[in-house]
């Protein structure tokens, strides 16, 4: 039997139960994904951006030879193979933090959230749709990255199940953390017009200090410590453990991949993001 609840801005809305909430959420996933792929700017700066950057760096630096090669030029890995883990990590961050941060801030500014607040749509269904869209588009993005790396640049992908198991849990923790942080950071812009200016620069800076565009071990210690406060560094480290040879662990902090710390850091950020979302998310701004 249907009850009543007052969960959204004091508006009495029907409580249809968890099953109905999840069905509404699934329909929102399909809707949000369609909208995502219709936005040209989002496709370029979020979905295709890591693929484009992988291509640019692989072609631009291939004349420098292999990364980690012996003095005689033998051994090592190609530039494309070296950049692949960082681009996957960057894609995860862009899909969650940048995509949702800008998207939700814009929806709050243009009145979309206010209109949804006056409908029976549960908040959980809205979040389910947003996070589902992030998972779908992120999986497609990583699939495209792997295809380009393998067939355009000849990168050898892991052949053992253990590496792919590590990839799976680093990816799930990373994308979930990025998604909730994107929802949380969407409160920062004062308007939809300022969303890109507020959110994109910090995301770009994090990519430069977290081992995406620059080899992490080449950064000064203090900058490595700063990067270690944020999740992108840990996502990148986890992905390097998956896609780079074991010998490359020697240049990581402590000389090991340290996957235990990767899991702990991402879990801490995931919980912190969930708490922030719970405390700050509103269908409309309080100062509206």
UniProtKB/TrEMBL annotation:
Swiss-Prot/TrEMBL keywords: Antibiotic resistance, Membrane, Transmembrane, Transmembrane helix
Residue ranges of every copy of the ABC transmembrane type-2 domain listed in the record: 41-287
Keyword Membrane appears in the UniProt entry: yes
GO biological process, one term: response to antibiotic
Annotated transmembrane regions: 43-61, 81-102, 123-152, 164-185, 197-216, 256-281
One term of GO molecular function: ABC-type transporter activity
GO cellular component: ATP-binding cassette (ABC) transporter complex
Protein's UniProt keywords contain Cytoplasm: no
Membrane topology term: Multi-pass membrane protein
Major subcellular location class: membrane
PROSITE patterns assigned to the protein according to its UniProt record, in alphabetical order: ABC_TM2 (PS51012)
Compartmental location: Membrane
Superkingdom classification of source: Bacteria
Name this polypeptide is given: ABC transporter
């Amino acid at each position: 039997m249907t009850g009543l609840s007052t969960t959204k801005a004091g508006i009495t809305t029907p409580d249809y139960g968890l099953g109905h909430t999840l069905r509404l959420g699934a329909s929102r996933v399909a809707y949000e994904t369609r909208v995502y792929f219709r936005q040209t700017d989002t496709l370029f700066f979020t979905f295709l951006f890591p693929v484009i950057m992988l291509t640019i760096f692989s072609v631009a630096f291939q004349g420098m030879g292999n990364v980690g090669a012996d003095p005689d030029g033998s051994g090592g890995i190609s530039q494309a193979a070296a950049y692949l883990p960082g681009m996957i990590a960057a894609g995860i961050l862009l899909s969650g933090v940048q995509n949702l941060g800008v998207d939700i801030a814009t929806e709050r500014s243009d009145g979309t959230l206010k209109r949804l607040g006056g409908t029976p749509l549960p908040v959980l269904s809205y979040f389910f749709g947003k996070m589902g869209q992030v998972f779908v588009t992120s999986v497609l993005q990583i699939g495209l990255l792997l295809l380009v790396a393998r067939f355009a640049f000849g990168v050898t992908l892991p052949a053992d199940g253990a590496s792919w198991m590590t990839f799976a849990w680093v990816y799930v923790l990373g994308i979930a953390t990025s998604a909730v942080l994107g929802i949380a950071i969407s409160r920062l812009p004062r308007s939809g017009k300022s969303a890109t200016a507020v959110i994109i620069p910090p995301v770009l800076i994090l990519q430069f200090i977290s081992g995406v565009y620059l080899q992490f071990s080449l950064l000064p210690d203090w900058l490595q410590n700063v990067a270690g406060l944020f999740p992108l560094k840990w996502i990148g480290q986890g992905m390097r453990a998956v896609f780079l040879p074991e010998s490359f662990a020697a240049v990581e902090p402590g000389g090991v991949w340290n996957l235990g710390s990767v899991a702990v850091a991402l879990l801490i950020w995931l919980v912190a993001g969930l708490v922030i979302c719970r405390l700050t998310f509103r269908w409309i701004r309080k100062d509206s």
